[in-house]
Amino acid sequence: MSGILYFVPTPIGNLEDMTYRAVNVLKEVDYILCEDTRTSGILLKHFEISKPLKSYHLHNEHQATEKVITDLKNGQNIAIITDAGTPGISDPGYLLAKAGADHHIEMICLPGATAFVPALVVSGLPNNEFLFAGFLPQKKGRQTKLKQLAEEKKTIVLYESPHKINTTLEQIKEFFGEETKVSLSREISKKFEETKRGTIIELIEFSKSKTLKGEIVLIVNNSI
Fold first, then answer.
1. What is the pTM of this model?
2. Are 180 and 156 in contact (CB under 8 A)?
């Protein structure tokens, strides 16, 4: 009988966001796949989890997936975690999920931490229908993607890094319009968690007035 593949969310900032179920699953599996063994090693030590860690990241996931599927078919139970958040959401995990589905492996994804849901809820913007776009392309296809998103008449959810945020906000102004309402959340669940709401012009002024740190979630109101 094949084993079970678990997708286990990890805290995006506050360690108290780790669920009891997540800890128990990680204690019971045969081994754990992770992005960075050093980062995940700290997490596992905190929760007194003693299981082998194996690297699984964007640079080796194609090669590693075949071995993981073989181990699952041989009856091993395996968990995949990322440095923060839910595996497969703008993090490694999709290829493994696809392979698991193709090989009829039982897969269970635990509910847990992910950055965009809290940001969307506190944005005050329409959330009955939204499009999660994750990170925009770095260079090639970036403007094409923004143009496509601007045509979507629903709330848009984006991830962005601090060093690209000013450029991205300027591009939102260009493609979505100067009156577009935006919510910017950063450092979610951490000590300096912050959300700023306003027009894209106001958000540009805010972003340029200070050095923003931490992963940023942008909620863009394009539903009208």
1. 0.91
2. no
